[in-house]
Write a structure and sequence with these properties.
The chain is α+β, with helices and mostly antiparallel strands. The chain is built from five helices and eight strands, in the order E-E-H-H-H-E-E-H-E-E-E-E-H. The strands form two sheets. It has a six-stranded mixed beta sheet. Strands 1-2 form a two-stranded antiparallel sheet. The N and C termini lie far apart (43 Å). InterPro entries: DUF2358, NTF2-like_dom_sf.
């Protein structure tokens, strides 16, 4: 009998974006008397994320960073016949620190896979690859540590949940330090391709953006 694994509440302060049900369970809820925040936050975040993106592009053109070609595996013949195959590949990508190196196995993702975190949402693994290519050159002394990875099965889909910690400085004049504990939910289709890649963080979206604009005065103890 297959084990039924309910996707838990990732963090109390910041859960999966939106108020909806995932795999038949409510994964988050918004505060009752918070209509102002609901209408204002997405607009403000969109402006903030766009500003950060343009800032990174500006520094990449002026020498603060450099464009790189993100290495990835485009093979379509990778043997993926079960959720265990996908879990093993994702685990291997974390061992390569894929988020801070750009080295990820794109063949396990559907071409139109949806990528989402508390600040942005888009579709297409090629766009995800380009976004990594923009970010990677700005990481300094980066690390992403996989703390836990689990598979789950619901009546709707198979899925995998990974818990991780990201630490990195950014190569910007004020040397901001980024520290985030997070979880990533990977939803799979019938061919065991990832069709949805959703991050949740232990900090709010505003706090995460705020880290980028906060100067670091000395490196924190490890």
């Amino acid at each position: 009998m297959a084990k039924i694994w309910c996707h838990p509440r990732p963090f109390s302060s910041q859960l999966l974006p939106g108020s909806r049900r995932v795999h038949g369970f409510r994964c988050c809820s918004k505060a009752p008397n918070d209509k102002n925040r609901e209408t204002q936050t997405p607009r403000l975040l969109k402006v903030a994320v766009s500003g950060v993106t343009e800032l990174l592009r500006l520094f990449s053109f002026t020498g603060g960073g450099r464009s790189i070609s993100v290495d990835k595996d485009h093979r379509d013949d990778i043997p993926v016949s079960s959720i265990d195959d996908v879990l093993s590949t994702i685990k291997s990508d974390y061992e390569k620190a894929y988020f801070v190196t750009g080295l990820f196995t794109s063949a396990i993702y559907a071409n139109d896979c949806t990528f989402e975190d508390p600040t942005i949402k888009f579709s297409g693994k090629e766009l995800y690859s380009r976004n990594l290519g923009l970010l990677v050159p700005f990481f300094e002394d980066p690390s992403i540590q996989l703390k836990k990875i689990e598979k789950g099965i619901s009546s709707e889909t198979d899925f995998i949940v990974a818990s991780w910690t990201l630490r990195t400085y950014l190569k910007l004049p004020w040397k901001p330090f980024i520290f985030i504990d997070g979880k990533t939910l990977y939803d799979l289709d019938e061919q065991f391709r990832i069709v949805r890649h959703v991050e949740s963080w232990n900090v709010s979206a505003f706090e995460a953006i705020g880290q980028i604009f906060t100067p670091s005065f000395g490196r924190p103890a490890k």
